[in-house]
Amino acid sequence: MIRSQAEDEARLAAERAEMVDRQIVDRGVADARVLRAMRSIPRHLFLPERYRHEAYADSPVLIGHQQTISQPYIVASMTEHLCLDQSDRVLEIGTGCGYQTAVLAELARFVYSIERIDDFVQPAIARLADLGYQNVRIKGGDGSRGWPEEAPFDAIIVTAAATRLPQSLLRQLRIGGRMVTPLATTYGQQLVKLTKTEHGVEEQYLYAVRFVPLIEDGPDSC
Ligand code: SAH
Fold first, then answer.
1. Whose C-alpha in 1, 24, 86, 121 is 20 to 30 A from the C-alpha of 65?
2. How many angstroms separate the alpha carbon of residue 215 from the centre of ligand 1?
3. What is residue 218's three-state secondary structure?
4. CA 46 to CA 48: how far, in whole Å?
5. DSSP H helical segments within 59-98, as ranges?
């Protein structure tokens, strides 16, 4: 049977609505802006052709180079914990396929994103441009040093697990800013939310996660 493009799009939109309702709303994510963004962004377009049928599955999916696009629930939950405002400037470490970047771009004023695997950088830039995002800048490199020229940021999200709190990134967060990152601890990886205050940094351990490692390419120069 040959399906029309309109039929395909309607089917994908239905899968996406189901993904948001069953995997995200039912698990407690309530931020209406996050839900709206994830209902509208065509997640399948961020995956390599051969994994596209898994785009709306309740799991991470391979995107090449042994990396994964995060599970939809994790994207939603991390974004909700960033408490984004429309005027915020956000830094993302680990662009990957750019899906999380698109979610952030829907909710914030501008998104800066850094990816260390060169092969991911141009396709992510092209994909986001094709989808019409004009408030995104992506560059290649080791994101653990952040993007000092553009700091301070209102929010920072790290989508790969560090073994220690990335101090250079915390320095690039404004007072009142939020950072969400997976962190490898002796008890396994935990998702951590850090809020920078005038008196220091508040740490909130959220729940256990499993991310690919954050690879630091050299000594921290900051
Ligand atoms: N959020 C993305 C990718 C998640 S996988 C998505 O949903 O598609 C984690 C990504 O972090 C990988 O692409 C990996 O190459 C990248 N990464 C790991 N260490 C990094 C570092 N130090 N700087 C920038 N990116 C890094």
1. 24
2. 9
3. coil
4. 7
5. 72-81
Beta carbons of 161 and 215 less than 8 angstroms apart: no
- 189 with 161: CB under 8 angstroms? yes
The torsion angles phi and psi of 131, rounded to 5 degrees, stand at -85, 0
Q: Is 221 a catalytic residue?
A: no
Indicate the length of the chain as a whole number: 222
Q: What is the pLDDT along the chain (222 residues), one digit of tens a residue?
A: 667 888 888 999 999 999 999 999 999 999 999 999 999 999 999 999 999 999 999 999 999 999 999 999 999 999 999 999 999 999 999 999 999 999 999 999 999 999 999 999 999 999 999 999 999 999 999 999 999 999 999 999 999 999 999 999 999 999 999 999 999 999 899 999 999 999 999 999 999 999 999 999 865 444
User: What is the value of pTM for the model shown?
Assistant: 0.96
Q: Using an 8 Å Cβ cutoff, are 23 and 74 in contact?
A: no
Work out which ligand 1 atom sits closest to the CA atom of 216. Answer: 22
Which of 183, 189, 188, 187 has its CA nearest to residue 169? 183
